[in-house]
Amino acid sequence: MDMIFSQLLQQARMKFGQNPMAVLSANQPTGEAPMDLFLAEEHTADYLALSTGGDADRGLITGALVGCGALGLMFFVLIFALKQDWESVMTGLIVVLFFSVPPFLWETLRPLPLPVLFNRRTREVYFAQNRALYHAPWDDIQALAGEFMIIGPQMGGMRCASLEVLMHRFEHPQEQILVNLGLPMGKTLALQKSLWEYIRAYMNNGPWFDKDGQHSESDAYVKSLLSMRIKRTDWHKYTLEKIRKDKAENQGKNYLSGLDAAMLVGNLFFYPMNWVQEFTNRVARRRPRKGWPDVVRERLRPDGPTSRLIDLERRNTA
Q1: Average pLDDT over residues 208-236
Q2: What pLDDT, in 10s, does the model give residues 56-67?
Q3: For residues 285 and 134, what is the distance between their CA atoms, to the nearest angstrom?
Q4: What residue ranges are annotated as transmembrane (predicted)?
Q5: Which of 11, 122, 157, 255 could serve as 246's disulfide partner, Cβ 3.0–4.6 Å?
Q6: How far is CA 222 from CA 76, 130, 263, in A?
Q7: How many helices and strands (H and E) does the chain possess?
């Protein structure tokens, strides 16, 4: 494993060139404050789930079809009902159901991408891809973080930073991959170090740590980070708060700009669509994730085995 990581490190130095990069480990602090970068899906006393991307917009199709299309059709259904045109009412309701039920079932029944799991009880990391299980013992884990630039003719240059951990396939240690923790776009090396520090703090303390990553008697800091996430259905609240602030600063005179007015109208117009999208997303997330093998699911239970997967591999090859 060390030899392979050394080879990957050489490749990374060629990739990043003169750009900043860092080798990260479980027992070495980064010097940054812990931040989850909005990737934490689930916190328990035993494991942390980090999103791998691809699921944040789940429910968007249902939201657009129901929040805009179906609700718009319901307006005409009510008009037909007032005119006692029951045949048109039934036709309209059938179309509304067609706009609502199939996309909702399609988005809620499709399995979500599995997260990267950090198991605090067994002190190991899991990742699944194409029905293959990858893992790494936390205490020996090795990670690479580095900055790079993406340059395009339309967008110019964008600074990015990746954070990758080395894992190997369960019972096939020769098959190794680098797993990205989150998308690199728009991030810096310092931000990726903050994410790594967040993971370190969790693995050392569970969800009970402070802004410096040290043990705390409460999970107030973790809850404060989670509360910073702005839901789409709350966008109008922040627009209203900005308008109130501008009103106070201008003593009630000429405080409402055209942009703020347009933002507020847009927030309210798209509120039904955003509410349906969030509801669909919540339903999809409640469904049990059946993609994990039994050896992982049983280790996620509070009373499950504490042996690591690497211990099972060594036992089977002994």
Answers
A1: 86
A2: 788 999 999 998
A3: 22
A4: 60-82, 89-106
A5: 255
A6: 47, 32, 31
A7: 11, 9
Residue 6 three-state SS: helix
135 or 232, which is more confident? Answer: 135
Structure tokens at 126: 């899991």
> Which conformational region is residue 131 in: left (phi greater than 0), alpha (psi within -120 to 50 degrees), or beta?
left
Against a cut of 0.85, is the pTM above it?
A: no
**What letters, b where the CB count within 10 A reaches 16 and e where it falls short, cover 277-300?**
bbbbbebbeeeeeeebeebbeebb
Q: CA 256 to CA 126: how far, in whole Å? A: 51
The confidence band for 245, taking pLDDT boundaries of 50, 70 and 90, is: confident
The whole-angstrom separation of Cα 97 and Cα 69 is 11
How far is Cα 251 from Cα 111, in angstroms, rounded to an integer? 52
% of the chain with per-residue pLDDT over 90: 35
- Please name the amino acid found at residue 13: R
**Residue 104: closest CA among 279, 290, 291:** 279
Closest C-alpha among 172, 194, 169, 138 to residue 22:
194
Mean pLDDT, residues 23-43: 89
Q: Give 135-139 contacts, CB < 8 A, sequence gap 24+.
A: 135/167, 135/168, 135/170, 135/309, 135/310, 136/165, 136/166, 136/167, 136/168, 137/308, 137/310, 138/26, 138/203, 139/26, 139/27
